[in-house]
Amino acid sequence: MNKMKLIAGTILFGSLWGFSECIIGSYLHNSFLPAGAIMTGVFAVGLMATSRILYKQRGMQLGMGLIAGTLRLFNPCETCFICSAIAIMAEGAIFELIWYKMSLDLKELKKTTMSVSMGIVSSYVCFVGGYVVTQIMTPLFSSAGFYLENLLVFIPQILARGLIAALIGGAIIPATLLLKKVDIASVKDKVYYPVTATVSIACWVIVILNAIFILKVL
Amino acid sequence: MGKEKFIPIFAMVVLIIGIFSSVYVYATQVNTDTIKITNETYTIEQIFSITKSRTVSTPDKVNFSGVALDDLIIKTGIDCLSCHKYKIIGPDNYEKTVTWENMQHGLLTKDGTVAFSDLAKAFRVKNVIRIEVVE
After folding, report:
1. Among B61, B92, B99, whose Cβ lies nearest the Cβ of A143?
2. What pLDDT does residue B130 have?
3. Chain B residue closest in CA terms to A158
4. What is the pLDDT of residue A134?
5. Quick one: three-class SS letters along A61-113?
6. Which CATH number does the domain housing residue A62 bear?
7. In A, which residues are within 8 Å of B121 by CB distance?
8. Given A116, A121, A156, which is nearest B21 (Cβ)?
9. What percent of chain B has pLDDT over 70?
10. Which pLDDT does position A78 carry in this prediction?
């Protein structure tokens, strides 16, 4: 596939992921729902799997994580935005590692057992990995410092919280595989680029305006 | 072992880990109305009656009101305050170790939450059950 199309797709899906983390994630968090697990299972794994299915390219999800994490930094309100940004970037890298050995046409996921299992594994490992990385990195960036014992005693909680993400992921991957027949390469350039650019810009503008609005209210 | 076998087995293992961890967390959860500081146990009311109040704004722009953590530690009679680190522990074993400098920017709210104006939300511990002096 054309490199420019791939870059535009990475920016589009990364922006959509970052947008959902900033806007929907904040809403879920305020609703006392398990926001982290829902965000990982539905949006992180859902969007990364969708991009993998549509573009059939490795490395794209790592780029998506970097873009989504950067966008999360532009919304310094509500939850711990540094922790969230680090977790998002880690999830992109972890997803890339898990899916690295999969074939580009994803023929291994034809059987429902395989697609459900892949969803469970991807969501759980992304959630737990992202959580652990952020628990290590956030204290390193603060004046308090990182203490391994603080992390070790909390590991059972992290493993338990990942269960919801795993169950969501088990449903999300088979659902995203319905997009397998969509041929993104056949979309004409004069439609593809304006649409990806408009949606990406809209995501960034809405997140930044939302952050400015909240900061003014506070 | 091929991918077709490995991935479903790994998924099963992941689910079993998640279920057993959930049972473990539920079984070991501690619910108490008191807070243990070093070796003494206090109620929230006792703490609020002896400690100076403080209001802080956290880095994520949330305002908290409660009692000053540094004053609370001073009132418990600990020597050489800056020589130690302080471990804040929640009922779900969530714990964070902070410095004396951080304690000077921290507070304990009426509902048992510890928050710091100089530390990220990851350092916010809800329903604190214990504050330990370490090192």
Report:
1. B99
2. 92
3. B21
4. 86
5. HHHHHHHHHHHHHCCCCCCCHHHHHHHHHHHHHHHHHHHCCCCCCCHHHHCHH
6. 1.10.1760
7. 79-80, 83
8. A156
9. 100
10. 54
Shortest CB distance from A157 goes to which of B60, B93, B101?
A: B93
pTM for the whole structure: 0.86
- The 10s digit of each residue's pLDDT in A56-65 is 999 999 999 9
- Which of the residues A78, A157, A168, A210 would you substitute to probe the B interface, choosing the one with the greatest number of B C-beta atoms within 10 Å? A157
- Which portions of chain A are predicted below pLDDT 70? 76-81, 217-218
For position A80, what pLDDT does the model report? 63
Neighbours of B86 (CB within 10 A): 25
Number of domains in chain A: 1
pLDDT band for B13, please (50, 70, 90 cuts): very high
Measured between CB atoms, which of B22, B101, B122 is closest to A163? B22
Q: How far is residue A170 CA from its own chain's centroid?
A: 16
Task: Check B4 against A77: CB less than 8 A apart.
Answer: no
How far is residue B134's CA from residue A197's CA, in Å, rounded to a whole number? 53
pLDDT per position as a tens digit, B101-125: 999 999 999 999 999 998 888 899 9
Which superfamily is assigned to B34-134 in CATH? Oxidoreductase, molybdopterin-binding domain (3.90.420.10)
A40 touches chain B (CB under 8 A): no
User: How far is residue A216 CA from its own chain's centroid?
Assistant: 28
Q: What distances in angstroms separate CA B102 from CA A71, A151, B51, B68, B128, one per listed residue?
A: 29, 19, 17, 11, 17
| Domain span including residue A178 | 3-217
Q: Which of A49-53, B13-17, B19-23, B55-59 has the lowest mean pLDDT?
A: B55-59
Q: Output the CA torsion A177→A182→A187→A193 (10° steps).
A: -20
Q: Say what the ipTM of the complex is.
A: 0.86
Interface-testing mutation among B13, B21, B24, B64, with chain A (most A C-beta atoms within 10 A): B21
What are the sequence ranges of the domains in chain B? 1-30, 34-134
Q: How far apart are CA A103 and CA A118, in angstroms?
A: 13
